[in-house]
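Entry 14. Structure prediction run on the chain below.
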Amino acid sequence: MCTRLMVPAAAILAACVSPPAPPAPQEFHAALTPQRAVAASGHVLVADGFDIQTSDAAAGIITAKRQRSPHGNDSLIVCKFKPGSIGSNAMTTTLSVSVSARPASDGSDVLISGRVHSSYGTTSGRMIGLEDSDADCASNGSEERRIAAALAATASP
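Output returned:
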């Protein structure tokens, strides 16, 4: 009987709202070579606390992750849990940002995208039945916009 009551309680305790929609990737032309675009993106990501996972300047790609305990990524993501809920307080989020720059006339065509993975390894998260997810949170687009702005500023004379 108690087990059956846990599921409705989980719905209340997690305090869910609709799953967030991820922002569209940032796509634009930059007056930088792919190598310079990757380097400039890397500087922004590291300054913002990201760990570089993959970087290949020749191929024009860089991927970085920022993993934080509850609320550590709140300024960069939106989640389906209301602030202060058990779901929100039990979650560790990893924001991954990828930048690719392809050679184009007078610079590069750049694509910046972000995605968020949420994990609930804490006791309270497991108790209310939360499972790791790639849909519970999404980037709010601020890191992607910050990189795009840095690339535009770097290309300016």
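Residues 49 and 125 are 25 Å apart (CA to CA).
Filed with the rest of this week's runs.
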